Amino acid sequence: MDAKTLCLGTLILGDASGYEIKKMFEEGPFAHFQDVGYGSIYPALAKLLDEGLVIEVRAAPESVVDKGHPDKKVYSLTDTGREVFRQALAKTPGRDKIRSDAAFMMFFSEFLEPVHLRNVFDDYLAHYKSRADFMRTLDPTGVPQGRLFVRGLGQAFYDAVVEYMDANRDMIMKPDAGSNRAAE
Amino acid sequence: MDAKTLCLGTLILGDASGYEIKKMFEEGPFAHFQDVGYGSIYPALAKLLDEGLVIEVRAAPESVVDKGHPDKKVYSLTDTGREVFRQALAKTPGRDKIRSDAAFMMFFSEFLEPVHLRNVFDDYLAHYKSRADFMRTLDPTGVPQGRLFVRGLGQAFYDAVVEYMDANRDMIMKPDAGSNRAAE
DNA sequence: ATAACCATGTAAATGGTTACATGATTAG
DNA sequence: CTAATCATGTAACCATTTACATGGTTAT
């Protein structure tokens, strides 16, 4: 999924600014399966505007909360944008892409200093723990099934990682009991 | 992790050709947490050769299996290469990067045609099932702990996805029972 | 024969990340 | 007053993906 489609997806959930879109990928509903930075979002929004898939709208006057932020740009999907998004969803998705540098490092645990290994392990576990905890705080009320399903999938993934790491800490942390001779 | 470090990692496990390195990322021990194509591997190997981190070696004469493949190039790590790899492992790893187009699609299940949704779901599940099954065929004998740990982590991940999807098929596949009105 | 696989490589296109540049507002 | 957060955007750099180009071998 390119940044453009990602933006269309967030906008179909409601009007938003570039800043708000980023937030959705940081702590929102997409957090566990997609990722984008400002450097992708702003150019993507500019292109979408160019192509007529989104328009710039003033934030609803009711939300005068935005009084002090005159430079905030809120985008809204056009009908064409909605249609293009539907077409993007109709394609066959590619395989999941996972890049875990931490897992790569732990794979080579014998080449890491014990202190460093412990840090990598603990940081990794702590991160997944906090993600799992965060997801548990979300309210499922009124959320469509597809979204709940994907949320649950993320939750299942986080929980599995945490559970496995808690259960197998010793396996990687304790010095190797001779079984590594063969593969060196 | 850039393609260069990834290549160093596979080569520390033993001499290999570009083609063999790719295989490792397709069906080998890295399959579930990293991914690279030929377009990354061959240029990376060329650079590593340039920098003196690897050398080209003839495949061991014993393995005359390679008789008919004179253009096969086997690479081997130099001491510098080993050292550079260790340094790469000593750094703090970045966060896992996950991009799941399929999850993104399922998130927006209301916008997908039922047939397409079913296809996406079934393909996704089938893929994770086959990955999980494959990992169960691997022999743990003589494999160092770090590698076993990461293998188990991948296994736990695959199993969690399969289990969750099997258990919650109805949730996403059955037409929405009115709870989606709110977020539309 | 012919498909599948082994095997290597390049070039162009695509797209993402990082660093830079700026400035207002809010909470402590 | 100072740090954090809100807010947008560009340019250079970096890296990957895709398409192209080639050709040998093995199994059916």
Walk me through the structure.
2 copies of one chain form a homodimer. In chain A, 54% of the residues lie in helices and 6% in strands. Chain A has helices spanning 3-11, 18-26, 38-50, 79-89, 101-107, 114-136, 145-167, 169-173, and strands at residues 54-57, 74-77, 97-99. In chain A, strands 1-2 form a two-stranded antiparallel ribbon. The longest helix of chain A has 23 residues, at 114-136. The two termini of chain A are 40 Å apart. At the A-B interface, helix 4, strand 3, helix 5, helix 6 and helix 7 of A face helix 4, strand 3, helix 5, helix 6 and helix 7 of B. Chain A binds a DNA duplex (28 and 28 nucleotides) through helix 3.
A few lines on this structure:
The structure is a homodimer of 184-residue chains. Chain A has 184 residues and is mainly α.
List the defining traits of the structure above.
homodimer, 184 residues, mainly alpha, 3 strands, disordered C terminus, DNA-binding
User: In angstroms, what is the radius of gyration of chain A?
Assistant: 21 Å
Number of helices of chain A: 8
Beginning-to-end CA distance, first to last residue of chain A: 40 Å
Sheet bearing the most strands of chain A, described? 2 strands, antiparallel
SSE ordering of chain A: HHHEEHEHHHH
Shape of chain A: elongated
Assign a percent range to the helix content of chain A: 40-55%
Please mark out the parts of chain A with pLDDT under 50 across 5 or more consecutive residues, or reply none: 178-184
Number of strands of chain A: 3
Identify the biggest protein-protein contact and residues per side: A-B, 76 and 76 residues
Strand order of the largest sheet of chain A: 1-2
Beta-strand fraction estimate of chain A: 5-15%
Give me the oligomer status: homodimer
Given the helix and strand composition of chain A, which structural class is it?
mainly alpha
Mean of all residue-level pLDDT scores of chain A: 89
